[in-house]
Amino acid sequence: MLDPIMTKPWHHVSEWFPNDKPTPFYTTHGSTLWDYTCHEPKLNHLINDTMSSDAQLVTNMVVRDCKRVFKGFNSLVDIDSGTGTVAKAIVDAFPHLKCIVFDLPHVVADLKGTENLIYAGGDMFEGRERNEKEWAKLFFDAGFNDYKIAPVLGLRYVIEVYA
Ligand SMILES: C[S@@+](CC[C@H](N)C(=O)[O-])C[C@H]1O[C@@H](n2cnc3c(N)ncnc32)[C@H](O)[C@@H]1O
């Protein structure tokens, strides 16, 4: 993480503040970190390994303390999963689950799944936003009784579903 690609953006924070770019990284390199790693295989692997090692810290706790959360599900999609460290630990601990690991194509390109772990590559920002009626159908079909969609900061929403 001391690679100049990663440290240089810290020298551009004051330039980033008044501009309309999303991050100091974007201000420095002209793309998001994720687009950048698409063309830099070495950095791609480094970033993915770093996130994977970070994810292992919480994985044990999730598997140990959140058992009841996973009991009611048959399947799980881990969006922005990276190389799937968390998903792998979850399907190992709860083998009745089928899990889809979704991340950018260059992140999951060389990864092999198993019978109950499938890797899928794509861009989560491509496609169409669901309207409220479609969300409601999704929740009710999944067995939930009620839901609440609350706007946060104008562009994002928090969705709560109730059983
Ligand atoms: C902060 S990492 C989280 C990784 C993993 N969930 C973890 O906890 O270790 C964010 C992930 O989002 C992925 N990502 C970024 N933009 C994306 C997009 N537009 N579509 C799909 N995945 C994306 C990146 O490749 C990266 O693996």
Automatic annotation (TrEMBL):
Q: Carries keyword S-adenosyl-L-methionine?
A: yes
Question: Which keywords does this chain's UniProt record carry?
Answer: Methyltransferase, S-adenosyl-L-methionine, Transferase
Please provide an example of a Pfam family that matches this protein in its UniProt record: Methyltransf_2
Q: Which InterPro entries match?
A: COMT-like (IPR016461), COMT_C (IPR001077), SAM-dependent_MTases_sf (IPR029063)
Q: What is this protein called?
A: O-methyltransferase C-terminal domain-containing protein
Every copy of the O-methyltransferase C-terminal domain together lies at 10-125
UniProt GO molecular function: methyltransferase activity
**Superkingdom, taxonomy of origin:** Eukaryota
